[in-house]
Structure formats: C-alpha cells, structure tokens
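Milestone M4 deliverable, item 7.
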Amino acid sequence: MVKHHPTPELLAAFSAGSLQLSYALCISAHLEHCSACRTNVQRLKSVGADMFSNQKPAPVSAGFKDRIFEQLDNSVPPQPEPETAITVDSNVPRSLRQLVPEGYQQLDWRSVTPGIKSAALCRDGDSTQVSMLKLMPGAGVGHHRHMGEEITLVLEGSFSDEEGIYQRGDFILRDGKHKHKPVASKDGPCICLTVQDAPIQFTGFLARLFNPFMRKSYGI
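Output delivered:
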C-alpha cells in the first residue's frame, strides 16, 4: 500500500502542466501505483477545466486568425515512424518505458559501492539529473544531507531511513533540511527512480572523501 505521496502543491502543478519534466515524470510513475493521487489529479483537472470554461474569451483580430490558418494550411503532417517490435517489461511504469525500454536489468548500471549501483537516464536542464538507483539487500547509502531537492520513487523492493519505511510506489521528497541514511530491506534489492538538482553531501568521516566527486558530476 502506498503511504508517501506528492504534496498537494506538486499535484496541483502537475495537473496544470506547469511542473518541470523530471518532476512530472516521477509523479506520472507514482500515479500508476496510487489510486488516491490519481483521483486527486482528476479532481484538480476538473476544477481547472471549470475555471477555464468560465473565463471570457479575449478578442482576436481577423489578421491573427488568417495567419494561424495559413500556417496550418502550409504545415506538413508528420510521417508515421515504421513499427518495430519492442520487448516491454511490464514491471516498468508506462511513463518510464521510453527511458527504460528493455527493463531494469538492461540498464547501464555503474557500481557506486559494492552494494549500490546507479544508472543515468537523462538530464533535465543544466543540473537536474534523472537516474535509477539499485540497492542490494541490506545495503545502505552513507549518512548524508541534500544540497538541493531530491525526489525518490520506489519502483521495486523497499528501504528505510530514520523517518520511516518506503515501499513500491512511495514518493519521497527531500531537501536541505533533511539528513538521513537509507538502507534497503534484506528480503530483496531495492530499485528507485531519483531526481536530483544538486549533489548529496556525505557527513560520515570516511564517506566525506566522496563529496568532491559528487560535486564534480554536477559541475560544481
């Protein structure tokens, strides 16, 4: 059962189409696991549609209309792409299948530590990174704080930190106020989708040696 959700403000921005792509991607994947948030988004969209329908239309000049129709007449419709057979992993949320077309196991996983692997998916702008994180059973990320915002969406397995236990579909937002040490459950690996707009900063005595490398990956 999903217990951790996006804030009402994030859901409202998502329903209005004003969220940046990386955040919208995480919420779309969360919605596939969470019926309560799907219902809330539908309600928000209905409210927005009602507000829009009650607005008085702004006057538009005849010349503007003519230019729009002329552009439509001269536009060339896109040609359909040839169909190709793609093997789709049904465990991957539909919103992620363009980035993870062949399943989690086929990603370009890079070892961070013996128990942790990461796979970069894309960038959103200059600094925001969208990645996959895999924690092997019982593995943990060193105690750290966040220099910016981080979204974590659990896709498989579970992990815990000082504030609770997070399972499939849970949406976790962290920022500079949070310090924690995530640890995967021992009954299986934990796979998460993560969005970070700044690197994390390890606070442990030895782990702090990794901080310059983390900052370098963000060009800091």
